[in-house]
Amino acid sequence: MHTWIIDTAHSEIGFKVKHLMVSTVRGQFTNFTGNIKSGDDLTKAEITFSAEIASINTNNAMRDGHLQSPDFFDAAKFPTLSFNSTKINKTDNTDYVVTGELSMHGVTKEISFDAKSNGTSTNMQKEKVMGFEISGALSRKDFGLTWNAPIEQGGVVVSDEVKLDINIECKELK
Length: 174
Fold this sequence. Notes:
By secondary structure, the chain is mainly β. 5% of the residues lie in helices and 57% in strands.
């Protein structure tokens, strides 16, 4: 059994959401941790992850403050989001579907992500590393994130669907 930890200097936890039905706002969580415990068969791996809500960054301090407020994540009451895998299915040589329990804003739901393994390598410190590209989508409403406002032309300020764009580099613990 190997334990791998996320190398936060070479990883990003990104998301994007439609704003006013016409543009896309991107953001990321900058303070996060996670690990993978696995043997050679990744379908038997155990994956855990958490991110601090207060680390949300959309390159706009006013928006970040609103996202941390009770209108959205309520970071004071629910300071972290977390994910724990429950099942991993291999769909081809490098692709997987990772299913698990995502908890945020006091709600836990089962969710699945597509994950592409980029293989393994050795970094400059002679540590074994592996990388993944992860994508998926979730409904804000499923997690009680319901703030919104209608817009004059029809539609709403913020879409319900949040798309995830995650790139992870992990290094093996010895």
